[in-house]
Design brief:
Blueprint (H helix, E strand, L loop, with lengths): L1 H24 L9 E5 L3 E4 L2 E5 L12 H14 L7 H4 L3 H13 L4 E5 L2 H12 L5 E5 L4 H10 L2 E5 L4 H10 L6 E6 L11 H10 L3 E5 L14 H5 L7 E5 L9 E5 L1 H10 L1 H4 L6 H16 L2 H20 L10 E7 L1 H13 L2 E2 L2 E2 L9 E6 L6 H18 L5
Parallel strand pairs: 3-12, 5-6, 5-7, 7-8, 8-9
Antiparallel strand pairs: 1-2, 2-3, 4-10, 9-10, 11-14, 13-14
Helix pairs in contact: 2-12, 4-12, 5-6, 13-15, 14-15
């Protein structure tokens, strides 16, 4: 039995390595390229070449912001470079509580809790909130961390067709009376850039007395006039039970958080394993995150500019003939079809000085391979127009667009 298990593990490893090596041999491997330097938020130095950056999650262009950098430096001077263990037993720093208070105020919640990564946040929060005998209901295109949290929880895991509220209601009707129910969805979907039908989802959760958890990894700083997220975007305050987000995208740091009612946060502080058994956020990262939330509110022009840049990019690509699917945010999929076409588009674009990256199967279904392009508030109008022109040229060269 042990030999058979070892063989199956070895086969899995070998299969992946063969695929990677095959892509490398064709000069089509573009992942994990070291970025040597960030230049002004919209340009990067990669392999000695300066390129326009269209693969960044720094939606508001806050990486390198003077106030945020200064906060991180001051935290190092005060606390050092790391913490000395888990917060429960080794001590919580004042900067950790200050960050959580800032998040709670930003998200209009009573309290907040932070974790070491966004992935870990979803994994531990879902598996702490629901368990055997409960039901967790998830959009089919939710992030992998949500899916893994659902599987790890031991709850009955039900999924519904992407953004289909009739399908969600059908699932809710399947849950027996008296069982715990948790509905989970991304606010903005990371591969498609579209927004969840939030008003209808809230209505259904109220109707069927289900808890609602929304992952705002790609909506904080993006949705809402002030960038506070999906509740502001739809004018529906205090409608999410579990307000989850990351500290590593719009917020240029690392970690994840949940904001909500005090009793929920207290429960998570004393029951979620990733809080109890993981080391605390480094002081510099906590301070940087706190300062970033403040900057979003202090510089609202960034949110407005991001919205304008996204519209310019999406409309320009559509006019060129590209299929950008249903995106309405700064995440702009450029549908290529086959994996080979997506790889070919990436290679041609990077050779012309545009840093974009492909998303291929199994991350997306076969036939839906794409470039997952992003724009930020750091881009200027002329840069975006130049990128659209370049992508159009590349699309025709590769055959994604008709000549």
């Amino acid at each position: 039995m042990a030999d058979q298990m070892a063989d199956s593990i070895q086969k899995r490893i070998e299969a992946m390595n063969r695929r990677v090596e095959s892509i490398r041999q064709q000069d089509l491997y573009f992942y994990n390229q070291p970025v040597e330097e960030l230049r002004g938020g919209s340009r990067v130095l990669v392999n000695g070449r300066e390129m326009g950056m269209y693969a960044s999650y720094s939606y508001l262009g806050l990486v390198g912001h003077p106030k945020i950098n200064r906060a991180a430096q001051q935290a190092i001077e005060k606390y050092g470079t790391g913490t000395h263990g888990v917060r429960t037993l080794a001590g919580t720093l004042t900067i950790h509580r200050e960050l959580e208070e800032t998040i709670a105020a930003f998200k209009h919640a009573e309290d907040a809790i932070t974790y070491s990564s966004g992935y870990v946040t979803n994994l531990t929060v879902v598996s702490t909130l629901v368990g055997r005998g409960d039901y967790v209901i998830s959009d089919k295109l939710n992030h992998a961390s949500i899916v893994d949290g659902c599987l790890m929880s031991g709850a009955k895991f039900l999924r519904f067709q992407h953004n289909d509220m009739e399908a969600l209601e059908h699932r809710l009707k399947q849950v027996p009376d008296g069982c715990g129910k948790l509905v989970i969805a991304d606010a903005v979907f990371s591969m498609d850039g579209d927004v969840i039908d939030f008003p209808k989802m809230v209505e259904l959760c109220k109707k069927y007395r289900a808890w609602l958890m929304i992952d705002e990894a790609h909506s904080v700083g993006v949705l809402g006039e002030r960038g506070t997220g999906i509740e502001e975007h739809f004018g529906m305050p205090n409608t999410i039970d579990i307000k989850m987000g990351t500290l590593s995208k719009t917020i240029p740091s690392v970690g994840g958080y949940v904001a909500g009612k005090k009793e929920v946060i207290c429960y998570l502080r004393h029951a979620s394993r990733a809080y109890i058994f993981s080391a605390a956020l480094p002081p510099a990262q906590a301070a940087a995150a706190k300062a970033a939330f403040e900057v979003i509110l202090e510089e609202p022009w960034r949110v407005k500019k991001l919205r304008e840049n996204a519209a310019l990019f999406i409309n320009g690509l559509k006019q060129s003939g590209f299929d950008t699917m249903l995106t309405e945010t700064a995440i702009v999929p450029i549908l290529c079809g086959s994996d080979e076409a997506a790889f070919g588009m990436t290679r041609a674009a990077q050779r012309k000085g545009l840093f974009v990256l492909p998303v291929v199967s199994p991350a997306v279904p076969p036939g839906l391979a794409r470039l997952r392009a992003t724009v930020t508030a750091a881009h200027e109008k002329e840069e975006i127009e130049q990128a659209i022109e370049l992508l159009s040229e590349v699309g025709k060269e590769v055959g994604v667009l008709s000549g």
